[in-house]
Design a protein that fits this description.
- By secondary structure, the protein is an alpha/beta fold.
- It has a domain of 76 residues: Dna Ligase, domain 1.
- 35% of the residues lie in helices and 29% in strands.
- It contains eleven helices and 19 strands.
- The strands form five sheets. A six-stranded mixed β-sheet has the order 11-6-1-2-3-19, sandwiched between helices. The chain has a five-stranded mixed β-sheet with strand order 14-13-12-17-18, sandwiched between helices.
- α9 links the parallel β17 and β18.
């Protein structure tokens, strides 16, 4: 477990690397006390392609967060994504061996171990084994069977795997910054903890995280994760479409997307215009209709949601989305995206802003911070399960606040 009552989450994304430092308060709540961000230049579609550039970006975000919090990061929860992530459901079955047929922690450990006795390619490693439900003597829907009596114990699990080389490259980048990895956490699992409600996960919900290089899907039902998938299309594709369609440099296309981007042309006033820098030296900027911009990027939004819809239907989970779909990730900030999604899925759609933490929340209450906030909450929930640390040093800001109270 992390030391001194602090939790750190680092989201190593395609466009941006974010480090958050959270502190456990005396009331056993988590408050964000440090935020650091850096442009990410060493990743492509969620996978490290340049070690040095990625290490440099992680260091920059790390130092910025440390300076704000007055605390040095020594270990962290690290988010992982990318098209190399693959997942599947599995089942484990054992005979209960405890005295009087009472299910013990050892029985639970054995049945989970048995669930991963499946053929996994040698170039892949298991990242998560997530219990969905336990079955005791044909009685299903059990969340945790410790202490129950039974003869046969079964478990349904969701197993997440990643390419060994991609996972190792991420670990190498983090270790070179001097940070010990507390746990590698799948982005969809982290996001779910910051943007989904308990009721949504019980009824059934689809989480769609649209990042810079990838779109990540997760399906929850009966409070458990049942399906995850990654589509290698994201916000960068919108930027490239703008650069080509408006004949403007990619950095300018990114700025135009963030400032004027709308994926539904009916939402744009016909009189609205935008200034578009031209490619090449000495060429003057042009004034174009904002509606033209919407017409360029709307097909890309429709394509992403159709791919997601097809993926969910192919796996047979379309009837699991009883409470609708939640959009998150930086690209979900594009105007009109919820309306396009509702048209494709024919379901209620909302944007997921992260919650669940205190402190500097006004700085991180947008969808592009859903993963790092979720990483903090993931660590916080681990702490609650294992018991909070007793030894906790106070940060500089907390000490200052205490001193001002006493003054």
């Amino acid at each position: 477990m992390p030391k001194n009552g602090y939790i750190v989450g680092i989201d190593v994304g395609t466009k941006k690397i974010t480090a958050l430092i959270g502190e456990i308060t005396e009331e056993k709540k988590i408050e964000i006390i440090g935020i650091g961000t850096a442009n990410s230049r060493g990743l492509r579609k969620g996978v490290v392609v340049n070690l040095d550039a990625t290490v440099e970006a992680i260091k920059k975000a790390q130092q910025e967060a440390e300076l704000m919090a007055g605390f040095e990061i020594d270990q962290a929860y690290i988010g992982i994504s990318g098209a190399h992530i693959k997942s599947f459901n599995s089942r484990g079955v054992i005979a209960v061996s405890g005295k009087n047929r009472e299910i013990t922690r050892e029985d639970i450990r054995r049945v989970i171990e048995q669930s991963k006795a499946v053929s996994i390619p040698p170039d892949r490693e298991i990242i998560h084994i997530i219990p969905q439900e336990y079955v005791v003597d044909e009685q299903d829907g059990i969340k945790y069977p410790l202490g129950m009596s039974g003869i046969k114990l079964e478990v349904n699990v969701h197993i997440v795997t990643g390419a060994i080389t991609s996972v190792q490259n991420l670990k190498t980048c983090v270790s070179r910054t001097g940070i010990e990895i507390e746990q590698i956490v799948l982005n969809q699992i982290a996001c779910s903890q910051s943007v989904l409600t308990h009721d949504e996960m019980e009824l059934g919900v689809g989480l769609i995280d649209i990042g810079g290089g990838t779109t990540e899907i997760a399906i929850f039902e009966r409070g458990s994760l049942w399906y995850t998938s990654v589509i290698p299309i994201g916000g960068d594709n919108f930027t490239n479409d703008i650069a080509v369609g408006l004949r403007t440099p990619i950095p300018e296309a990114e700025k135009i997307k963030k400032k004027f981007g709308c994926v539904s042309s009916p939402l744009v006033d016909e009189q609205d215009t935008i200034e578009v820098p031209s490619v090449g030296r000495g060429k003057k900027a042009r004034v174009l209709s904002r509606q033209l911009l919407a017409e360029i990027i709307q097909p890309r939004a429709e394509e992403i949601f159709r791919l997601v819809d097809n993926d969910i239907k192919r796996m047979g989970y379309e009837k699991s989305l009883n409470s609708g779909v939640v959009l998150t990730g930086g690209t979900s900030l594009l105007e009109g995206l919820e309306e396009i999604a509702e048209g494709v899925f024919d379901l209620p759609v909302r944007r997921g802003d992260p919650g669940g933490a205190g402190g500097l929340v006004d700085r991180v209450n947008t969808p592009d911070y859903a993963t790092p906030v979720g990483l903090l909450l993931h660590g916080y929930n681990k702490w609650k399960e294992q018991g909070f640390p007793k030894d906790k040093k106070k940060s500089f800001w907390v000490k200052l606040k205490d001193w001002l109270k006493e003054a």
